[in-house]
Amino acid sequence: MNVPNSPSVSPTEGAAKLPAHEQVYQRLRAQILFGELAPGQAVTIQGLVEALDSGMTPVREAIRRLISDGALVFQGNRRVSVPELRAEDVDELIFARKTVECELARRASTRMPETDVDALEALDLTLDTAIATGDVPGYLALNYQFHTELNAHADAPILADLADRLWLRFGPSLRVVCGRFGTQSFPDRHKDILEGLRKKDADLVALAMERDVLQGMEQVRAGLTPIN
Amino acid sequence: MNVPNSPSVSPTEGAAKLPAHEQVYQRLRAQILFGELAPGQAVTIQGLVEALDSGMTPVREAIRRLISDGALVFQGNRRVSVPELRAEDVDELIFARKTVECELARRASTRMPETDVDALEALDLTLDTAIATGDVPGYLALNYQFHTELNAHADAPILADLADRLWLRFGPSLRVVCGRFGTQSFPDRHKDILEGLRKKDADLVALAMERDVLQGMEQVRAGLTPIN
DNA sequence: TTGCTCAGAATATGATCAAAAATGGGACTG
DNA sequence: CAGTCCCATTTTTGATCATATTCTGAGCAA
Question: What is the pTM (predicted TM-score) of this model?
Answer without folding.
Answer: 0.88
